[in-house]
Write a structure and sequence with these properties.
The structure is a single chain. By secondary structure, the protein is an alpha+beta fold. The chain has 5 domains: 274 residues, P-loop containing nucleotide triphosphate hydrolases (Rossmann fold); 101 residues, Translation factors (Elongation Factor Tu (Ef-tu), domain 3, Beta Barrel); 62 residues, Elongation Factor G (Translational Gtpase), domain 3 (Alpha-Beta Plaits, 2-Layer Sandwich), CATH 3.30.70; 114 residues, Ribosomal Protein S5, domain 2 (2-Layer Sandwich); 93 residues, 2-Layer Sandwich (Alpha-Beta Plaits), CATH 3.30.70.240. It has 16 helices and 36 strands. The strands form 9 sheets. A 7-stranded mixed β-sheet has the order 2-3-1-4-5-11-6, sandwiched between helices. Strands 18-17-23-14-15-22 form a 6-stranded antiparallel β-sheet. Strands 28, 33, 34, 35 and 36 form a 5-stranded antiparallel β-sheet that branches. Strand 19 and strand 20 form a beta hairpin. Helix 10 crosses helix 11 and helix 12 packs across helix 13. The longest helix is centred in the C-terminal third of the chain and has 18 residues.
């Protein structure tokens, strides 16, 4: 990285803005248009051509969509706007959580063609939960089938009365060429991206006045003094209206709607104006509650306070190393500052501070509270960590990530890959906290968990491209178990003579079923010394190892009581080993006679769907041998369906549910219990295992 003269902006001149919405709504194109209009880039890139600033990974170029968040800061009329372009595809919602966690304003980009789509609603719910102020940019008004009125009606229907248009389009579809400003009663028409201020067309004057009056009335009711004056006939000034609306935006009670076209470009310059004029500065946002030891304290966006930074995204670069994107919550960061990681306790020296534009970085000499910066090569810092002075350690709340729902088993393709796999996976997981890596001790598989099929595919592609590690994948195995259905008895005899001391041990065992969840019980019923006391633990050990290794059907055994009630020994040839082997042989023999059955895991599944899909989802769960437990109303007009479903039936449920509900359905699972599997299905499982 080479140093450039990058201007440092005071906190009150900084705006941190997340671009969110459904895939294809035009977020990345809008970011590109904004960078171009600000003079940050010399030419407009294209998503289709893979030339945009914020979509720079080869995987993004190949698919023509954003797959991870990217920064796009630019200067505009004395302000610095830190744009955070968040992906809109469902599999990459983890980065939406991260973007909204550090944004002071969320711009929801909504297509005037497709309207309000599923990921728009999902992101709105996150922003609402976090209390993030919101604006809406209705995009693509120049496209065929675009409708401002239809989209506005959808916004009001989905998000409530706070939706407030402050612009109206002039024309629509092919005739769209400008916007009417409801604050100033002026129109702005565009030619090749350049605006000309004109009078509002006579044809839409009546509509403009009607919407203008409604807007003014909606604003003045928020201010008692202004309302009283308004009722007395005193019309508030534009500045007063904007100031009151800005207050409502900061409080996340008013959500202004603007419009335009990112490809035109039409009115994208005005969007930047609105961000600077109406959007909150970091200091306008409420203080953040942080943990300081065993106390909770409030942290304000104060450039004179103690330096405090929150890492919201990690980029694993194979050449530069780890790049940490962080929001400065308090104080000021300068090169060579040393801070402590509140999680690990390790000291971190921030050698260089940079601003990041797409994949490019520019060094800065300082950055105040409220700004977003990039720092490379931190030793022990990951996404969600807090950096603070060692003598004043505090911890900011982490980014809440959704639980991953789809898994694939991964193994290194070659020995060379095996040697690099662990480190590569560690770095790829640091980059994307929405991923999980688990080791199933029963199936002996390493499982990589993600938010969907594309999420896992992209992760494996990046693993090979960035770190040169190729892996093979397989379906996750279901951790079946075995038990017995009746009591039986058997002899376990181990005899071996090879010269010198031999091996001799005999035990008589009785196996009995235990209630589900009973585990393993060992009962010593030996009387009279038929087996010497010192050899009894060896019998138990042999049984326990056999239960863990595999029963008669090849799976671990549970819920069994085993009693040793008789046996034989040899004064010379008996040993712990001989009785351990006798225990193993006796247990297997008794199992075969005790009606062995296969147990399958059952998951508790909670599915959240719109009411329109409730019947379809319930029917689908029933077809998967699910037992419906109930339904209840969920926030946002959704329905929560709870069911107990065999785990084998929902291994690919993330894919199936998305298809069944057009992407609206979401679910979470947790292991609930084991149950006996139907015999014909158990036979199929055993046969499939033998084939493998």
């Amino acid at each position: 990285m080479e140093a450039h003269a990058v201007k440092v902006f005071p906190p009150e001149k900084i705006r941190n803005v997340a671009l969110v919405g459904h895939a294809g709504a035009g977020k990345t194109t809008l970011a590109e248009a904004r960078l171009y209009r600000a003079g940050t880039i010399p030419r407009l890139g294209s998503v289709e051509d893979g030339t945009t600033v914020t979509d720079f990974d080869p995987e993004e170029h190949a698919r023509g969509m954003s797959l991870s968040l990217a920064l796009a800061p630019f200067a505009w009329k004395g302000f610095k706007i830190n744009l955070i372009d968040a992906p809109g595809y469902a599999d990459f919602v983890g980065d939406v959580h991260s973007a909204l966690r550090v944004a002071d304003l969320a711009i929801f980009v909504v297509s005037a063609v497709e309207g309000v789509e599923v990921q728009t609603e999902y992101a709105w719910g996150i922003a609402e939960e976090l209390g993030v102020p919101r604006m809406i940019f209705i995009n693509k008004l120049d496209k065929e089938r675009a409708s401002f009125d239809r989209t506005l009606a959808q916004l009001r229907d989905r998000f409530g009365a706070g939706i407030a248009p402050i612009e109206l389009p002039i024309g629509e579809q092919a005739s769209f060429h400008g916007v009417a400003d409801l604050f100033r009663n002026k129109a702005y028409v565009y030619d090749s991206g350049q605006a000309e201020e004109v009078e509002i067309p006579e044809s839409m004057s009546e509509q403009e006045h009607e919407v203008h009056d409604s807007l003014v009335e909606g604003i003045v009711v928020a201010d008692d003094d202004m309302l009283e004056r308004y009722l007395d006939g005193d019309i508030p000034s534009v500045e007063e209206l904007e100031r009151t609306m800005a207050s409502g935006i900061a409080e996340a009670t008013v959500f202004p709607v603007v419009c335009g076209s990112a490809t035109g470009p039409i009115a994208v310059d005005r969007l930047a104006d609105f961000i600077t004029e109406l959007g909150p500065a970091p200091s306008d946002r409420p203080p953040m509650t942080v943990t300081a030891g065993d106390q909770s304290v409030e942290v304000f966006s104060d450039p004179t306070g103690d330096p405090l930074a929150f890492v919201f995204k990690t980029i694993a670069d194979p050449y530069v190393g780890q790049i940490s994107l962080m929001r400065i919550r308090s104080g000021e960061l300068k090169p060579d500052i040393s801070l402590a990681n509140s999680r690990s306790g390790s000291d971190e020296k921030l050698t260089k501070i940079a601003t990041m534009i797409g994949k490019e970085t520019e060094l800065v000499q300082s950055a105040p509270a409220g700004d977003i910066v990039a720092v490379a090569k931190l030793g022990d810092t990951a996404t969600g960590d807090t950096l603070a002075p060692r003598n004043k350690p505090v911890t900011l709340p982490p980014v809440d990530q959704p639980e991953p729902v789809l898994a694939t088993a991964v193994t290194a393709r070659t020995q060379a890959d095996e040697d690099k796999l662990a480190n590569a996976l560690r770095r790829i997981l640091a980059e994307d906290p929405a991923l999980r890596l688990t080791r199933d001790s029963e199936t002996k598989q390493t499982l990589l968990w993600g938010m969907g099929e594309m999420h896992l595919t992209i992760t494996l592609e990046r693993l090979e491209r960035k770190f040169g590690v190729a892996v093979d994948t397989d379906k996750p195995k279901v951790p079946y178990r075995e038990t017995i259905s009746r009591t039986s008895q058997a002899e376990g005899k181990y005899k071996k003579q090879t010269g010198g001391h031999g091996q001799y041990g005999v035990c008589f065992l009785r196996v009995s079923p235990l209630p589900r969840g009973g585990g393993f019980e060992f009962v010593d019923e030996i009387r009279g010394g038929s087996i010497p006391r010192q050899f009894i633990p060896a019998v138990e050990k042999g049984i326990a190892e056999t239960m863990t290794d595999a029963g008669v059907r090849g799976f671990p055994v549970v819920d069994v009581q085993v009693a040793v009630y008789d046996g034989k020994y040899h004064s010379v040839d008996s040993s712990e080993m001989s009785f351990k082997m006798a225990g193993r042989l006796g247990f297997k023999a008794a199992m075969e006679q005790a009606g062995p059955v296969l147990l399958e895991p059952v998951s508790r599944v909670r599915v959240t769907v719109p009411a329109d899909y409730q019947g379809d989802v319930m029917g689908d769960l029933s077809s998967r041998r699910g037992q419906l437990q109930g339904t209840e109303a969920a926030p946002g007009g959704m329905q929560l369906i709870t069911a107990l479903v065999p785990t084998s039936e929902i291994m690919n449920y993330a894919i199936d549910l998305r298809s069944l509900t057009q992407g609206w359905g979401r679910f979470a699972t947790e292991h609930d219990h084991y149950q006996e599997m139907p015999s014909h299905m158990a036979d199929q499982v055993v046969a499939a295992m033998e084939e493998d």
